[in-house]
Amino acid sequence: MSPRPRKDERSINLQQAIKETAWQYIAEYGAPALSLRAIARRLKITAPAIYNYYPDRDALVTALIIDAYTSFGDAQIAARDAFAEHDIIGQLHAIGHAYRQWALAHPQRYQLIFGTPVPGYVAPMDQVFPAGARAFGVLVSVVEAARRVGRLRTDLFPPITPGDETALEEWRRFGGDADALSLSVAVVIWARVHGLVSLEISGILPPIGAGIDALYEYEMASIERQFFRTNNHD
Amino acid sequence: MSPRPRKDERSINLQQAIKETAWQYIAEYGAPALSLRAIARRLKITAPAIYNYYPDRDALVTALIIDAYTSFGDAQIAARDAFAEHDIIGQLHAIGHAYRQWALAHPQRYQLIFGTPVPGYVAPMDQVFPAGARAFGVLVSVVEAARRVGRLRTDLFPPITPGDETALEEWRRFGGDADALSLSVAVVIWARVHGLVSLEISGILPPIGAGIDALYEYEMASIERQFFRTNNHD
DNA sequence: AGTGTAAATATACGATGTTTATTTTCACGA
DNA sequence: TCGTGAAAATAAACATCGTATATTTACACT
What we know:
Two copies of one chain form a homodimer.
Chain A: H1 14-29, H2 36-42, H3 57-81, H4 88-105, H5 107-114, H6 125-148, H7 162-172, H8 180-202, H9 212-227
Chain A binds a DNA duplex through helix 2.
């Protein structure tokens, strides 16, 4: 009935507008409540029009995840590059701080990445992995830099098993030239940070009051003590 | 039209049967895909009949979460009590092992507890907290036992802020008589374990191959070294 | 034996993702 | 300038979901 609106009366890039509206919706109601019809309603569009830009809802979710990973990675890259390359502890601390701050500023995006956002959705690794590897690669780069100058503590670390080597090649296709040891250490560090942050965001931490800031700082200090040398003589 | 079936022809306790069917459904399709109508279909029931046992879907989800927490807590309690009370390291290691094993055996339950299972659902803390506190309390009890015999390392731990004390009282109403320091140390330990386990379950760990077992063991050893003394002279 | 209550069904409503068919708009070549 | 064809939007429909309402059935108790 009603005619199609003129091109200059609507958003130039509707594909981008859909994502932005989706982010608004996610920020308000959370990732699992994402609704194509609600997005269309806000854009004064009918729901099937979205299918001209995304084949289905999963594709939109994938695009959102990739965008979130990109923003997440940008924040960490900026934090790392604010410190000199030789200042490994400074870079590490900055990354850890940026990690938590980004997560607290965008909890829905964090849960979109690491949670189970949508029923039946499984992230297509071939599309998501590069963006995720870029974000994770920031930490890996610092660990690897420490290892190269002999400032990575690996005494008690479990030996790298042969199976890890084949997996490492897949990583190198995206993430860089870190070796298996640096990658494993980075995973352990990442898991510690992710554990605290995800529990904090989920709101299921037991009542320890306002001490979360201090606990997070303590964990960052623990990581630095355990895995890094301040010089290469100790 | 069709008459109501005889009582002895159907499940004695339909309330329990609904939960069991829900678990089946969750195990197959994941927590976010939980559907009341699908449950009813499997039970050869109409969907509104469920409302005689649960006021809405959120109530069912809450019941499932409480059941999951109970099972999770049982596993850790059994693991702890398999070691003598004075064997703190043994108990700690057993709890950590049981934690991961339970999560790997029931990944959907783990994600139901710690993820965002259902759009718009927020866990009612007054109902869920006791069950969650019981599961978390197992770790707390071991940490507190170590503290009481002077085997908890607290040198570098951040001081407990005054705000934590008021929050502690709320914990004591459910969890026991641990003090604020033990509670905070337990949170840090929990976060480390949760971080690795949740990343492993989500399948978003970078390709480090089969080394996850070794990394987990390494982290448990790290926890023991950092927070516990083998005797009270060191 | 009759009656009231509890539990199930039947039906319906609004919302969702998605498909199909139809209409409208725009860009481009004759 | 005028068609023409492709692109993009709408319209309508379908199956599914959670849930509310009204109705019917079965059982327990007096």
